[in-house]
Prior knowledge:
Layout: H1 6-14, H2 21-33, H3 42-55, E1 60-64, H4 70-78, E2 84-89, H5 92-102, E3 111-115, H6 118-123, E4 129-134, H7 141-150, E5 152-161, H8 176-189, E6 194-199, E7 205-210
The structure holds S-adenosylmethionine.
Amino acid sequence: MGWIPSEIEEYCINHSTRPGEAARELQKYTKESVHGSNMLIGEMEGSVLKFLITLGRVKNVLELGTYTGYSALVMAEAIPHDGKVITIDINPKTSEIAQEYWAKSPHGKKIKQILKPGPEALKEIHETFDLVFIDADKNNYPNYLTWALDHLSPQGIIVTDNTLWSGKVLQSGVDAQTDSIRKHNDQAAALEGYIKTLLPIRDGMFLIQKG
Ligand SMILES: C[S@@+](CC[C@H](N)C(=O)[O-])C[C@H]1O[C@@H](n2cnc3c(N)ncnc32)[C@H](O)[C@@H]1O
C-alpha cells in the first residue's frame, strides 16, 4: 500500500541510508522472482529500522516474519558485530532464500533463524531484546505484543508493521485479521509508562518504547 506519491518515496529513499549490496540484491531477486514480494518492508522502512537501532544502541533483535530475510539483513547491518537478530518464520522455501543471501553478507552471521510457528517458537525464548519487530501472522498481533512487552530490555523498542492495514483499521468487523490489528493498536495505545507513535510510513509502523 502506498500512502505517499511514489516519486516522493523514491526521493526520501535516495536521501536516506541505503541497504548493503547483498540486501539490495535480495530485494531485487525477491521482487522479480518470489511470490508475495509486496510483503517486503522495502528501503524506506529499512532505513527507519536502522535509524532506531543506532539511536537506541540496539544489540539484540527478535523478529517475527523472516520471509526472504530482507528486513533481518538490513537490521543486522545496523547492529554491532557482537549483536544478533533472531528471526522466526514457518516457510522453509523463503527461509532457504534468506539463508542464501545472508551468506553473501558480512552481517549475515549475526542472524539466527527459527523455523517454527511464532507462538511455539516464542515459548522457548526466555531472554530480553532491545528491539522486537512484529511482521508476521496478523491474527496473533495482540499475543505477540504481549510477549514483546514481557521480553523487552530497559528502553527497549517494539516496532509493529502493517498497523494501518491499507486503511482497513478505520473500521471494525471488516475481517478477523483487521480486528486483530485493531486490537493490537488499541492495546498499544492504552499502555501506560511507554511512549508510542503510530507512523503512517508505508502500511503503518507502530513504535512503542519503554519510558
Ligand atoms: C510480511 S512477511 C515478513 C517480511 C519480512 N519481515 C521482510 O520485510 O523482509 C510475513 C512472514 O510471516 C510468516 N508467517 C505467517 N504466519 C506465521 C506464523 N504463524 N509463524 C511464523 N511466521 C509466520 C510468513 O511465512 C511470511 O514469510
